[in-house]
Amino acid sequence: MAKKVMMSTEGVEVFREQTAPKFEIKDGDKLVGQLTVSVGGVRWSPSRSQGDAYYLNWEEFDALMKQQKRG
Fold first, then answer.
1. What is the C-alpha to C-alpha distance for residues 67 and 51, in angstroms, rounded to an integer?
2. What is the pTM (predicted TM-score) of this model?
3. 3-state SS, one letter per residue, for 4-69
4. What Cα–Cα distance (Å) separates residue 48 from each residue in 13, 45, 53?
5. How many other CB atoms are found less than 10 A from the CB of residue 20?
6. Rounded distance between C-alpha atoms, residue 46 and residue 70, angstroms
7. What is the C-alpha R_g of the chain?
8. Residues β-bridged to residue 26
9. Is pLDDT at 13 greater than 80 in this prediction?
Protein backbone atom coordinates (compact mmCIF):
# COMPACT_ATOMS: atom_id res chain seq x y z
CA MET A 1 0.00 0.00 0.00
CA ALA A 2 2.33 2.76 1.16
CA LYS A 3 5.05 3.69 -1.29
CA LYS A 4 6.45 6.63 0.59
CA VAL A 5 6.89 7.49 4.27
CA MET A 6 8.13 10.90 5.34
CA MET A 7 8.91 12.17 8.80
CA SER A 8 9.18 15.68 10.17
CA THR A 9 10.19 16.76 13.65
CA GLU A 10 10.27 20.06 15.39
CA GLY A 11 12.47 18.88 18.24
CA VAL A 12 14.82 16.09 19.16
CA GLU A 13 13.33 15.24 22.54
CA VAL A 14 9.59 14.61 22.67
CA PHE A 15 7.82 16.23 25.62
CA ARG A 16 4.31 16.46 24.19
CA GLU A 17 2.42 15.78 20.98
CA GLN A 18 3.18 19.23 19.53
CA THR A 19 6.90 18.35 19.26
CA ALA A 20 6.40 14.66 18.37
CA PRO A 21 7.65 13.13 15.11
CA LYS A 22 4.97 13.02 12.43
CA PHE A 23 5.08 10.41 9.69
CA GLU A 24 3.23 11.17 6.46
CA ILE A 25 2.20 7.93 4.76
CA LYS A 26 1.69 8.26 1.02
CA ASP A 27 0.69 5.99 -1.84
CA GLY A 28 2.34 7.78 -4.73
CA ASP A 29 1.25 11.40 -4.41
CA LYS A 30 -1.90 10.49 -2.45
CA LEU A 31 -1.73 11.03 1.31
CA VAL A 32 -3.00 7.94 3.15
CA GLY A 33 -2.66 9.44 6.62
CA GLN A 34 -0.37 10.77 9.31
CA LEU A 35 1.08 8.87 12.28
CA THR A 36 2.20 10.89 15.31
CA VAL A 37 4.46 9.21 17.87
CA SER A 38 4.47 10.96 21.23
CA VAL A 39 5.35 10.32 24.85
CA GLY A 40 1.75 9.33 25.62
CA GLY A 41 1.21 6.99 22.66
CA VAL A 42 0.43 6.98 18.95
CA ARG A 43 -2.20 8.84 16.95
CA TRP A 44 -3.34 7.83 13.44
CA SER A 45 -5.12 10.46 11.37
CA PRO A 46 -6.42 9.03 8.07
CA SER A 47 -6.46 11.55 5.23
CA ARG A 48 -10.07 10.79 4.31
CA SER A 49 -11.19 11.53 7.86
CA GLN A 50 -12.29 15.01 8.83
CA GLY A 51 -10.94 15.55 12.31
CA ASP A 52 -11.35 11.93 13.42
CA ALA A 53 -8.10 10.47 14.71
CA TYR A 54 -7.41 7.15 16.38
CA TYR A 55 -5.32 7.20 19.54
CA LEU A 56 -3.68 4.41 21.55
CA ASN A 57 -1.57 4.88 24.65
CA TRP A 58 1.57 2.74 24.83
CA GLU A 59 -0.09 -0.01 26.90
CA GLU A 60 -2.96 -0.28 24.40
CA PHE A 61 -0.55 -0.22 21.46
CA ASP A 62 1.57 -2.97 23.05
CA ALA A 63 -1.51 -5.17 23.62
CA LEU A 64 -2.76 -4.60 20.06
CA MET A 65 0.60 -5.42 18.50
CA LYS A 66 0.94 -8.61 20.57
CA GLN A 67 -2.35 -9.80 19.04
CA GLN A 68 -0.90 -9.52 15.52
CA LYS A 69 0.63 -12.43 13.70
CA ARG A 70 4.38 -12.28 13.30
CA GLY A 71 5.55 -12.26 9.72
1. 28
2. 0.75
3. EEEEECCCCCCCCHHHCCEEEEEECCEEEEEEEECCCEEEEEECCCCCCCEEEEHHHHHHHHHHCC
4. 30, 9, 11
5. 20
6. 24
7. 13
8. 4, 31
9. no
